[in-house]
Automatic annotation (TrEMBL), chain A:
Species per Swiss-Prot/TrEMBL record: Flavilitoribacter nigricans (strain ATCC 23147 / DSM 23189 / NBRC 102662 / NCIMB 1420 / SS-2)
Lineage: Bacteria, Pseudomonadati, Bacteroidota, Saprospiria, Saprospirales
Identification of the protein by name: Ribose ABC transporter permease
Residue ranges that the Swiss-Prot or TrEMBL entry lists as coiled coil: none
Pfam families to which the protein is assigned, alphabetical: BPD_transp_2
Keywords linked to the UniProt accession: Cell membrane, Membrane, Transmembrane, Transmembrane helix
GO MF term list: transmembrane transporter activity
Location relative to the cell: Cell membrane
Source organism superkingdom: Bacteria
Topological relation to the membrane, as annotated: Multi-pass membrane protein
Cellular component terms (Gene Ontology): plasma membrane
TM region(s), chain numbering: 46-65, 72-90, 96-119, 126-148, 168-189, 221-242
TrEMBL record, chain B:
Keyword annotations: ATP-binding, Cell membrane, Membrane, Nucleotide-binding, Repeat, Sugar transport, Translocase, Transport
Membrane-topology descriptor: Peripheral membrane protein
Primary location recorded for the protein, binned into one broad class: membrane
InterPro entries: AAA+_ATPase, ABC_carbohydrate_import_ATPase, ABC_transporter-like_ATP-bd, ABC_transporter-like_CS, P-loop_NTPase
Species this protein is from: Flavilitoribacter nigricans (strain ATCC 23147 / DSM 23189 / NBRC 102662 / NCIMB 1420 / SS-2) (Lewinella nigricans)
Pfam families xref list: ABC_tran
Protein name, as recorded: D-xylose ABC transporter ATP-binding protein
Length: 324, 497
């Protein structure tokens, strides 16, 4: 009876089954895989990609793309570190503002949000294709990172931030908590709110959505802003984990995020997909990476394997979608 | 060639679209398939042309059993189809669309655009369509695009041509044109299969009929041996009383006043698409707008709905307050609604379900979705408009064309508008649903709704309207009250020059 539901359930259960089989295979080949510490490790490792990929999902659902997330991650990570370590000085006013850890994190999120909003503004105001607009931001934000850090890592950020990166809370690593909250919030937004529905509608048929009275530009602006902010959360996690902001952090992270989105069954042409699918996609990539490391496969082969998985995922998805 | 379907059955999840259908399509004849929305007509045509390679039963061409695995194979066997929905690529030119997938080549594999343009020009002339082969399709109106689809099928030199509602977006002049071409094709011995919900044209063009109801064949025979009433009884399963027009008493209160509306041409400087348009719409009135293709009727509705803020100038009053709409959102807020012409491109989000589509314009009322309310709303329209579907969570993509059209109507009715714009609202809707919609419109109008109705169907506009404006080349060329309007008057006023 309930066709859409069944279809989506089928698609989702397929990637779940794939994840399960992958886990099974690795568990058979390596006895280190199914240890608690390793599993927490996997979850902690994917938490950054999960945050970025959730934002990417919203963008891709709208038939857009955001190539700038890796650079935005690096810049906001650096800002977070810089604010905590050096504070913020207005030299002309002879004013100095110091930042707590929380202040640094919020500052980083604000910067990510602003960079994302700038993406959205360029895309909506000047009708620049998202690919181009965010490609420009990819180099702009990387350049800003280099300028801000002068190319040198900002390290020794204190125990507060270290807790965010490596600490445990109620038996669960803090980064895992954070990515879990991000996922819950955005599953809710995408499924239960009018805003979420609009994202799907714009991706499905932008013209029909516009004619139905949806303010397309405002939704796009918001989505690119959120994608930037989520990249900044990823930046905070990376910085906290290393207790240091690296100027070249987050390189090619946009590709991992897009891969998670695609493996999770979200269509690059928009309108179809889900946040939960993306989480499964990120898990598949994470488990694959972890498994290959456990099996001592060379990192070069890891890259090949990831590419093959992406292809398989898309091909299987295409075959499923062919009806009749 | 004689095309024959034997014991064809086809199921989709939750729907048996065709159930053991056997019929024959004769060469040199126009074979029409009739049936209500969702009866299975398009599905049958798609099976005959390889769109759905999986089905039960068999297809025979001149007695030989064929099984098409793809559209290409059917084409090679000499079967061409004009689909119900437009399938042109907007960015490509008319000529590129016509030759898509079977481009002509010169030596070295270069494209022979000269020859392709020449052939395009020839076929466009045959259809009396005055557009250049190099025009990008996105600049064409829906009716013109429909004619390009027809041209594409004509160019293939197929022996069997299947036409799925080719006239739903055409006005009478273009329909006559198409009929002329079909008669030529008939004289050449081609097999024509034709679907239409317009009964009057069927008696002019068709030789042989088949009626489907709920996927089952319920009647077949020669057109000359039947009557309209008989066909309707077969389709609907009972007599359908077509009610005469009842004059509604309308108030004298003007709800919408339009003055001096101009719209600039999007590409050509100094040229105007609409010029000097002024009219009033009263509460409870159905104001019909008649005109030939390209008269500017759709553009008029679009401009008033806030779609061309950059290149339009006008004075607009809604219930006495001056307004300018810069987006549909603003127009909707002031109680306007717009049933657009092209359901696939503008009306629906095909990948979303019925309920989500219907609730789209009213979602902004609350930040949270209300699935229960949404479902009940959809349920009520599914019942009221008789949308044929297994559930209100069915994707719109899986609905038949006429049922998709009903979802577009439901979407806009659900906003409870004060002023409703309707652009060819009954396009592709079956005869029963059409009359039910007419009844609904009359009822809504009696409750104080005002309607601006664009329609190319003269009977429709004469039945429904209280007053009729005629447009030609972007200007108003006639203003008739229902008592003085008739077909001749309307057509005369609609002719340019
Ligand atoms: N891809 C699909 N998936 C599920 N159901 C489908 C699909 N295509 C068609 N149907 C269903 O099959 C039935 C027949 O559809 P079809 O398009 O053949 O109707 P039709 O006679 O052409 O109607 P119309 O006059 O509205 O064009 C309908 O109930 C429709 O909902
Ligand atoms: Mg149909």
């Amino acid at each position: 009876m309930n066709l859409t539901f069944n279809n989506q359930l089928l698609r989702k259960s397929q990637s779940l089954i794939a994840l399960f089989l992958l886990c099974l295979l690795i568990a058979l080949l390596s006895d280190k895989f199914l240890t608690t510490s390793n599993l927490w490790n996997v979850l902690r490792q994917i938490s950054v990609n999960v945050c970025i990929a959730v934002g990417m999902t919203l963008v891709v659902l709208m038939a857009g793309i955001d190539l700038s997330v890796g650079s935005v991650l690096a810049f906001s990570g650096a800002i977070c570190a810089g604010l905590i370590k050096f504070g913020f000085a207005f030299e002309s006013l002879d004013l100095f503002v110091g930042f707590t850890v929380l202040g640094g994190i919020l500052g980083a999120m604000l910067v990510g949000l602003l960079l994302g909003l700038f993406n959205g503004w360029v895309i909506t105001r000047f009708v620049v294709p998202p690919f181009v607009a965010t490609l420009a931001m990819l180099t702009i934000a990387r350049g800003l990172t280099m300028l801000y850090t002068k190319g040198i890592p900002i390290s020794n950020l204190g125990p507060g931030l270290e807790f965010i990166g490596s600490g445990w809370l109620l038996g669960i690593p803090v980064p895992v908590w954070i990515s879990l909250i991000v996922v819950l919030v955005f599953v809710f937004i995408s499924r239960k709110t009018a805003f979420g529905r609009y994202i799907y509608a714009i991706g499905g048929n932008e013209k029909a959505a516009f004619l139905s009275g949806i303010n397309i530009n405002r939704i796009k602006l918001a989505v690119y802003g959120l994608a930037g902010m989520l990249a900044a959360i990823g930046g905070v996690l990376v910085t906290a984990r290393l207790n240091s902001a690296q100027p070249n952090a987050g390189m090619t992270y946009e590709l991992d995020a897009i891969a998670a989105v695609v493996i999770g069954g979200t269509s690059l042409s928009g309108g179809v997909g889900s946040v939960t699918g993306t989480v499964i996609g990120a898990a598949i990539i994470g488990v694959l990476n972890n498994g290959l490391v456990l099996l001592n496969v060379s990192p070069f082969w890891q890259q090949v394997a990831k590419g093959v998985v992406i292809l398989l995922a898309v091909i299987i998805d295409k075959m499923n979608r062919k009806e009749a | 060639m004689l095309l024959e379907a034997r014991n064809i059955s086809k199921s989709f999840p939750g729907v048996k679209a065709l159930d053991d259908v056997s019929l024959q399509f004769y060469p040199g004849q126009v074979n029409v398939i009739l049936g209500e929305n969702g009866a299975g007509k398009s599905t049958l045509l798609k099976i005959l042309t390889g769109v759905y390679p999986q089905y039960e039963g068999s297809i025979l061409l001149d007695g030989k059993v064929l099984r098409f695995g793809s559209v290409r194979e059917a084409q090679r066997a000499g079967i061409a189809i004009i689909h119900q929905e437009l399938n042109l690529i907007p960015q490509l030119t008319v000529s590129e669309n016509l030759f898509l997938g079977r481009e002509l080549h010169r030596e070295l594999g270069l494209l022979d655009s000269t020859e392709m343009n020449r052939q395009t020009q020839a076929v466009l002339e045959k259809l009396q369509l005055d557009i250049a082969p190099q025009t990008p399709v996105r600049r064409l109106k829906v009716g013109e695009q429909q004619l390009v689809e027809i041209a594409r099928a004509l160019l293939t030199d197929a022996e069997v041509i299947l036409m799925d509602e080719p006239t739903s977006a055409l006005s009478d002049t273009e329909i006559d044109n198409l009929h002329r071409i079909i008669r030529d094709l008939k004289a050449d011995g081609k097999t024509i299969v034709y679907i239409s919900h317009k009964m009057d044209e069927l008696f002019r063009i068709a030789d042989h009929y088949t009626v489907l109801r709920d996927g089952v064949m319920v009647g077949t025979g020669k057109m000359e041996d039947t009557t309209e009433a008989e066909l309707i009884r077969l389709m609907v399963g009972r007599e359908l009383k077509i009610e005469a027009k009842t004059l509604v008493t309308q108030s004298d209160e003007v709800v919408m006043r339009v003055k001096d509306l101009d719209l600039d041409h999007p590409y050509v400087r100094q040229r105007k698409v609409l010029e000097n348009i002024s009219f009033n719409l009263k509460r409870g009135e159905i104001l019909g707008i008649f005109g030939l293709m390209g008269a500017g009727r759709t553009e008029l509705l679009e401009t008033l709905f806030g779609l061309h803020p950059g290149r339009s100038r006008y004075r607009l009053e809604i219930e006495g307050t001056a307004r300018q709409f810069k987006s549909p959102q603003e127009a909707i807020r002031q109680g306007l609604a717009f049933v657009t012409e092209d359901r696939k491109a503008e009306g629906l989000i095909l990948g979303m379900d019925i309920a989500a589509n219907i609730s789209l314009p009213t979602l902004s009322e609350t930040p949270m979705l209300q699935p229960q309310r949404e479902k009940e709303l959809a349920r009520s329209y599914v019942d009221q408009l008789a949308i044929k579907t297994p559930s209100e969570r069915q994707l719109c993509r899986n609905l038949s064309g006429g049922n998709q059209q009903k979802v577009v109507l439901a979407k806009w009715l659900s906003t409870r508008p004060k002023i409703l714009f309707m652009d060819e609202p009954t396009r592709g809707i079956d005869i029963k649903a059409k009359h039910e919609l007419y009844e609904l419109m009359k009822q809504l109008v009696a409750d104080g709704l005002s309607i601006l109705l664009v329609s190319s169907e003269i009977p429709e506009i004469l039945t429904l309207s209280d007053r009729i404006l005629v447009m030609a080349e972007g200007r108003i060329t006639g203003d008739f009250s229902v008592t003085e309007a008739d077909e001749d008057h309307l057509l005369k006023a609609a002719l340019p020059g």
